[in-house]
Amino acid sequence: MSDGTASRGKRSGKKNMVFCRRCGKRTLHVRKKKCSSCGYGDSPKKRSYNWKKKGK
Ligand SMILES: [Zn+2]
Q1: What is the CATH number of the domain that holds 21?
Q2: pLDDT of 11-29, one tens digit each?
Q3: Model-level pTM?
């Protein structure tokens, strides 16, 4: 099976991510109950990393 643009249409619709109520992105993992974007469900504080800082 080739892995490329041709296989994109064959992807099954199974996704473990649902919309996060805190950040609004679809980054909340269903089974982990954790948002990979803001950390909802894992930490009461917003998930953030130094390498994610905005700026120059
Ligand atoms: Zn989130």
Answers
A1: 2.20.25.30
A2: 777 889 999 999 899 999 9
A3: 0.61
